[in-house]
């Protein structure tokens, strides 16, 4: 508002007098003057105070309802819609709310049904701004049958520009559950997918969010996949800004959480893109990438590719990414069908080295992964050969309780493995290990729970209960 005020002073406009002059012009029986005055108002709207704009909105809405005297008359409706479009952008959404409360939306929708050409173009741009800048206006559009109108226009539209405006409107409306239901029932999913493919990035991001929400409905997933959702969301995951990538990645994770769609998503090139997301700066993106990797890894061939990326990340210098990669390996190490995949990837020596990493989070996640690996006899041998035992013994003195617990749990598994020979004695004779006896007893008591946890997941589990990963 301060910046707007400075511009207003620079223009030297007395806004109260300007409003009176505008009302006087509208009161004249001269359509040309109406159009000229309203067009000038549209140009000045970005400088006008909000209270003045709020007073102008009812006048503009009334002009929308006026019917030109002849087909050759300048379109006052077009000028009014254009001005409302400009006003809707002001006040960080507040003016869009004022417009929605003025009953402008019903007039806009009514005109859309009976007009074409340049007027329809301006009407759509106006409606797009109204539903973009004020979420509550979307509900008003729905109440007036706007969803059906937009879908019908999309079915018959051959103009690319008009279609873009329609798709941007649809992406905003689709954030409402009832609209998504209508889209699904009416066969309009293809339009929602298309809205995620074209238009502004903000609109595409909204469409991606709506697709993810629609994917929560199990019966909708097949339609989404058949409509090309994977390709458009993967494109957004590749070219979108940070927030768009997170939204697209989450939507893909929701839609693919069924055994039938795990391979198609991986085959479409998802794994490298999620690996990039895992290395990004957005914490939510890392969490989503971890969750989706755990879903995709249910298929062993996917797991091989995923672990290759995780090992590469562990070798890098991005501490946050290394912690996230170790966290994924922690989960994957509990998948019974993947024990050899993790071991054969060369991850174990790297994990052991990272037990001495300077970053606390990295050490915690790595210690968890090593603990999980220590439940498998062959992995225990690989861990011991890589020097894990002395490092774990040292970790019993760590300030982090989680790391002490992880180290103790792993050492219990090592201490009971007679195949390790003298290295067991190193564990049993350690004063630190002996001092942890009571804590170790508690850890052993929790083993039964760990054995039945979700980490022991397989393709059969997904087949029996596809909803388990939603």
From TrEMBL:
Species in which this protein is naturally found: Anisodus acutangulus
HEAT repeats by residue range: 388-419
ARM repeat start-end pairs: 346-388, 387-415
Protein name from the UniProt record: Uncharacterized protein
Record lineage: Eukaryota, Viridiplantae, Streptophyta, Embryophyta, Tracheophyta
Domain of life where this protein originates: Eukaryota
UniProt entry keywords in alphabetical sequence: Repeat
Family annotation (SUPFAM superfamilies): ARM repeat
SMART domains on file: ARM
Signal peptide stretch: none
């Amino acid at each position: 508002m301060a910046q707007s005020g400075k511009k207003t002073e620079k223009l030297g406009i007395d806004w109260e007098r300007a409003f009176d002059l505008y009302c006087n012009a509208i009161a004249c029986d001269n359509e040309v003057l109406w159009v000229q005055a309203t067009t000038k108002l549209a140009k000045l709207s970005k400088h006008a105070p909000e209270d003045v704009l709020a007073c102008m909105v009812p006048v503009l809405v009334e002009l929308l309802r006026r019917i030109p005297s002849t087909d050759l008359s300048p379109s006052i409706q077009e000028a009014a819609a254009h001005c409302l479009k400009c006003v809707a952008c002001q006040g960080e959404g507040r003016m869009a709310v004022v417009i929605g409360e003025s009953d402008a939306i019903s007039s806009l929708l009514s005109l859309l049904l009976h007009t074409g050409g340049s007027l329809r173009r301006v009407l759509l741009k106006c409606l797009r701004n109204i539903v973009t800048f004020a979420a509550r206006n979307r509900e008003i559009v729905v109440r007036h049958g706007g969803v059906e109108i937009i879908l019908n226009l999309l079915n018959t539209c051959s103009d690319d520009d008009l279609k873009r405006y329609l798709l941007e409107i649809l992406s905003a409306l689709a954030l409402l559950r009832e609209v998504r239901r209508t889209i699904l029932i009416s066969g309009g999913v293809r339009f929602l997918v298309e809205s995620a493919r074209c238009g502004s990035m903000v609109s595409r991001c909204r469409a991606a969010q709506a697709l993810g929400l629609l994917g929560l409905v199990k019966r909708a997933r097949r339609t989404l996949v058949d409509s090309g959702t994977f390709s458009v969301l993967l494109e957004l995951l590749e070219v979108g800004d940070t927030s768009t990538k997170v939204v697209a990645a989450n939507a893909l994770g929701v839609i693919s959480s069924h055994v039938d769609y795990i391979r198609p998503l991986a085959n479409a090139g998802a794994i490298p893109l999620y690996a990039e997301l895992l290395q990004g700066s957005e914490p939510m993106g890392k969490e989503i990438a971890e969750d989706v990797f755990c879903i995709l890894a249910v298929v062993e061939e996917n797991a091989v590719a995923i672990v290759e990326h995780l090992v590469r990340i562990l070798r890098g210098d991005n501490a946050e990414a290394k912690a996230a990669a170790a966290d994924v390996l922690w989960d994957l190490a509990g998948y019974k069908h993947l024990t050899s995949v993790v071991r054969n990837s060369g991850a174990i020596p790297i994990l052991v080295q990272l037990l001495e990493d300077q970053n606390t989070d990295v050490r915690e996640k790595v210690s968890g992964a090593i603990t999980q690996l220590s439940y498998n006899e062959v992995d225990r041998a690989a861990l011991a050969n890589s020097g894990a035992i002395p490092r774990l013994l040292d970790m019993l003195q760590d300030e982090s309780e989680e790391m002490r617990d992880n180290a103790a749990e792993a050492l219990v598994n090592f201490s009971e493995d007679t195949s390790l020979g003298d290295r067991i004695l190193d564990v049993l004779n350690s004063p630190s290990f002996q001092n942890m006896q009571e804590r170790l007893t508690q850890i052993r008591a929790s083993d039964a729970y760990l054995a039945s946890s979700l980490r022991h997941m397989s393709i059969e589990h997904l087949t029996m209960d596809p909803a388990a990963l939603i």
